Amino acid sequence: MIFSKIRKVLGDIYLVFVLIFLYAPIATLVILSFNTSKSRNRWGGFTFDWYGELFKSSTIMSAFRNTLIIAFLSALIATIIGTIAAIGINNMRKLPKTAVMAVNNIPMLNADIVTGISLMLGFIAFGISLGFKTILISHITFNIPYVLLSVMPKLKQTERVTYEAALDLGATPLAAFFKVVFPDIFPGIISGFLLAFTMSLDDFIITYFTKGAGINTISTLVYSEVRRGIKPSLYALSTIIFGTVLILLIVSNIAQNKIKKNK
């Protein structure tokens, strides 16, 4: 009894340390975004000036806009393609399905630098000039596997009998899918979209190798600023992004819990 209590206490302490290591850098970044002083070692007082400077900087706002547009479009397109692909893979026989899923896992296990250089060489080989469209295509490419892995478990939980029953009752295949299958896999689709959006928002290496001159995302802008010294306005931007992603995750979890309760 005593040993089980000690084990539980040690487990809780370990969890607290893990959370501290994970979120202490983010908490530091948030605090620095409100620091009057540009020094990271001295607190000069509380201010919102860096947030005001953030919205006045055309360079940062352009990179922010590019990042959001690329993240949203790539996540949306990857979610559509990944969902359709997941439905097709789910209807395959066991051996082809296993082979396709193994191929799907390769981009996630592969090093980002290898993927980035490969995509860059592929674009150059086909005569495609590097720019916004190449970044978008690259992000769609590496987002699809994550969507597949989010949707596939939900498809396995659905019962094919209900879909076939809808067809027997006179529904068209498309209507039967949206009325019967789609509501069951919708939480997986949302999870896949949010995961793809976050992965795209966070990516640096693949974006760095596939972007052209004159276009920046937040990650590439921060990389270029490191050599000259990071501006506190970038701390403010990172804080806004972190808050936005956190709100999206909370809303998503609440929505999924409501769907489960309604079922």
Automatic annotation (TrEMBL):
The keyword Aminoacyl-tRNA synthetase does not apply. InterPro entries: Bact_Polyamine_Transport, MetI-like, MetI-like_sf. It is found in: Cell membrane. Keywords: Cell membrane, Membrane, Transmembrane, Transmembrane helix, Transport. Pfam families: BPD_transp_1 (PF00528). One of its GO terms (cellular component) is plasma membrane. PANTHER family: PUTRESCINE TRANSPORT SYSTEM PERMEASE PROTEIN POTI (PTHR43848). This is ABC transporter, permease protein. It comes from Lachnoanaerobaculum saburreum F0468.
